C-alpha cells in the first residue's frame, strides 16, 4: 500500500502569486520532470520539460523521471456534490475523513449537500460545518443550504440568513416540494437573494419506490423501476418555472438523453441554466444491476447505454457544464442489504481521475472536456458566491499533479474516505494524483508514487 503525507493549510507556502496560478508554479529551478502537460486557458499544453517548484520537490522526488512518462499539472478540482455526512452521520463519514479523500483525489473545493442531521437549514448548522472544515484545515468546503425547512417541502428556509452564513446555493435534493406554488415561491425568494437553486430533477410520484432504471431488464429481474419520464417531466417543469421567475437554476445529476435535449433548448433560449452529471452515469449503464450487487445501487439510477453516450456528448457539446463524483460514503452494514433495500451511493472521490483517464483512453471523452468540467465548469455554476467570498482562480493557486501512467489497485484499506462502497475496489487503474496544493500550500503528496 502506498503511503501519503497530509499537511494542514497553516503550512508555509512556497508557490507564489502570479497572473496565472499554474504558470506561476513553473519556476526555472529545482528538479525537472521531462514530460509535463500544463493546463492553461482551458487547454492542455503539449508535453514539455517542467522545472518543479520547491514546494513540489518532495512529491516529485518520488516520481520516475522516465522520459516517456507523462505528468499533468492541473487546477485544483471542484466537486459540486460531496456528502461529508457531518454533523450527525459520522459513522459514514466526517468532514476530516472526506476532506482527506478529496485531497487524495485532487479535489481542493467541494460543495456539501444539506442532508445532514440536523439538516443544514439554519445559519447555526452552516457555521458548524464551516468551523469543522476550518479545524480540519484541508480543503475548501462550500455548504449548500436546504431550500425548505427540514427539507420537508412546505416552509421556505431563511435563504438570506443562510447565504450570509456562507451557503453558496440552496436545494431540496430529492425531497419533494409540496406543490408548484411553494416551488415558485422558493425560486422567487432565491432570485431576490441572487442565490443559485440546485434542483435534482425527479417527479416524486413517478420515481417513488424505484431502485433501478425502468426497462425490460428491471421488469425481468423484478426490481422496481424509475421511468425516464420521472426525470424529464421534472426537468421540463423546472425550466418553465426558472424562465418564469428568472432564478439561476442548476440541474444536478441528470441521467437521461432527453434531459440533455431539454437543457440544450433552454440554453439556446438564453435561460440562466447549468447542469451536471454524476460520474457513475458516465461510466456505467443499467446492465450492471443484473448482478444485484448493491455497489451499483445509486440515485439517479444507472440508465441505458444510449443515455450514457448522450451524457458524454452533452459534456463535449457544452450542454452539461460539470461532472460531480456525487460522492456518498456509506457504512458497510447499509450496503450489505439486498439491492432494493441497500442505501444508495458510491464512494468515488479518490478514484475519479483514473476513471476519467480511462474514458479518455477509450476515446469516449476528451481530457480537456472533463478537466474543464471539474474546474472552470463548476466555477461558472457557483461563481457569484465565490466572488462574494473573495475566492478567485488566480492566486494563490490550487494545483494538482497527476501521474497519468501510475498503475495501482485500490483496496478498501487504501481509501481515506470512511465509505468503502466503491465498485472498482480490486480493479487495476491507470493514473493517480501525486500531489495536491491548496492556496499555494502542498497539503497532500503520495509517498513513494
Class computed from helices, strands and strand pairing: alpha/beta
Low-confidence stretches: 13-30
Mean pLDDT: 90
Characterize the largest beta sheet: strand count, sense, and whether it forms a barrel. Answer: 8 strands, parallel
Beta-strand fraction estimate: 15-25%
Taking the alpha carbons of the first and last residues, their distance comes to 10 Å
In DSSP terms (H or I, runs of 4 or more residues), the helix count works out at 16
Q: How many extended strands?
A: 17
Can you give the helix content as a percent range? 25-40%
For the largest sheet, list the strands in their spatial order: 5-6-7-8-9-12-13-14
Radius of gyration: 21 Å
Bulk shape? globular
Explain how this protein is built.
The protein contains 16 helices and 17 strands. Helix 9 (228-245) packs parallel to helix 10 (257-268) and helix 10 packs parallel to helix 12 (305-316). Residues 13-30 have low confidence and may be disordered. Helices cover 33% and strands 19% of the residues. It has helices spanning 21-24, 54-60, 95-105, 123-136, 159-165, 180-192, 204-207, 216-221, 228-245, 257-268, 279-283, 305-316, 332-335, 352-361, 367-373, 376-388; strands at residues 3-6, 32-38, 48-51, 71-75, 77-79, 107-112, 140-146, 169-171, 196-199, 212-213, 225-226, 249-251, 273-278, 322-324, 399-408, 429-438, 441-447. The longest helix has 18 residues, at 228-245. With 449 residues, it is α/β, with parallel strands linked by helices. The strands form 3 sheets. Strands 5-6-7-8-9-12-13-14 form an 8-stranded parallel sheet, sandwiched between helices. The chain has a 7-stranded mixed sheet with strand order 1-17-16-15-4-2-3, with helices on both faces. A two-stranded parallel sheet has the order 10-11. Strand 12, helix 10 (257-268) and strand 13 (273-278) form a beta-alpha-beta unit.
Amino acid at each position: 500500500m502506498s503511503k501519503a503525507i497530509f499537511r494542514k493549510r497553516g503550512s508555509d507556502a512556497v508557490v507564489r502569486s502570479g497572473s496565472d496560478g499554474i504558470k506561476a508554479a513553473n519556476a526555472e529551478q529545482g528538479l525537472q520532470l521531462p514530460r509535463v502537460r500544463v493546463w492553461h486557458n482551458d487547454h492542455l499544453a503539449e508535453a514539455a520539460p517542467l522545472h518543479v517548484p520547491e514546494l513540489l520537490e518532495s512529491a516529485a522526488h518520488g516520481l520516475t523521471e522516465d522520459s516517456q512518462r507523462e505528468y499533468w499539472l492541473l487546477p485544483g478540482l471542484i466537486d459540486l456534490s460531496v456528502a461529508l455526512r457531518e454533523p450527525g452521520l459520522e459513522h459514514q463519514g466526517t468532514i476530516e475523513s472526506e476532506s482527506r479523500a478529496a485531497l487524495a483525489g485532487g479535489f481542493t473545493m467541494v460543495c456539501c449537500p444539506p442532508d445532514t442531521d440536523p439538516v443544514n437549514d439554519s445559519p447555526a448548522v452552516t457555521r458548524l460545518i464551516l468551523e469543522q472544515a476550518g479545524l480540519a484545515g484541508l480543503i475548501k468546503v462550500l455548504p449548500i443550504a436546504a431550500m425548505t425547512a427540514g427539507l420537508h417541502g412546505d416552509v421556505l428556509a431563511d435563504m438570506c440568513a443562510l447565504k450570509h452564513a456562507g451557503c453558496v446555493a440552496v436545494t431540496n435534493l430529492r425531497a419533494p416540494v409540496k406543490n408548484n406554488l411553494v416551488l415558485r415561491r422558493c425560486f422567487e425568494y432565491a432570485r431576490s437573494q441572487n442565490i443559485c437553486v440546485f434542483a435534482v430533477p425527479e417527479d416524486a410520484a413517478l420515481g417513488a419506490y424505484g431502485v433501478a432504471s425502468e426497462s425490460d431488464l428491471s421488469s425481468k429481474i423484478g426490481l422496481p423501476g424509475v421511468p425516464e419520464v420521472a426525470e424529464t417531466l421534472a426537468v421540463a417543469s423546472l425550466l418553465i418555472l426558472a424562465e418564469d421567475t428568472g432564478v439561476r437554476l442548476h440541474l444536478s445529476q441528470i441521467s437521461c438523453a432527453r434531459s440533455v435535449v431539454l437543457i440544450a433548448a433552454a440554453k439556446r433560449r438564453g435561460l440562466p441554466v447549468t447542469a451536471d452529471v454524476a460520474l457513475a452515469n458516465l461510466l456505467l449503464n443499467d446492465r450492471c444491476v443484473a448482478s444485484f450487487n448493491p455497489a451499483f445501487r445509486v440515485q439517479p439510477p444507472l440508465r441505458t447505454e444510449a443515455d450514457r453516450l448522450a451524457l458524454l456528448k452533452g459534456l463535449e457539446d457544452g450542454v452539461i457544464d460539470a461532472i460531480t463524483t456525487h460522492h456518498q460514503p456509506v457504512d458497510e452494514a447499509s450496503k450489505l442489504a439486498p439491492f432494493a433495500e441497500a442505501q444508495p451511493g458510491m464512494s468515488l472521490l479518490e478514484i475519479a481521475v483514473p476513471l476519467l483517464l480511462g474514458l479518455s483512453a477509450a476515446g469516449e471523452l476528451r481530457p480537456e472536456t472533463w478537466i474543464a468540467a471539474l474546474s472552470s465548469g463548476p466555477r461558472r455554476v457557483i461563481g457569484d458566491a465565490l466572488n462574494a467570498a473573495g475566492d478567485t482562480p488566480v492566486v494563490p493557486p490550487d494545483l494538482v499533479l497527476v501521474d497519468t501512467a501510475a498503475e495501482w489497485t485500490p483496496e478498501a484499506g487504501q481509501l481515506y474516505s470512511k465509505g468503502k462502497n466503491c465498485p472498482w475496489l480490486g480493479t487495476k487503474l491507470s493514473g493517480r494524483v501525486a500531489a495536491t496544493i491548496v492556496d499555494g500550500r502542498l497539503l497532500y503528496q503520495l509517498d513513494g508514487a
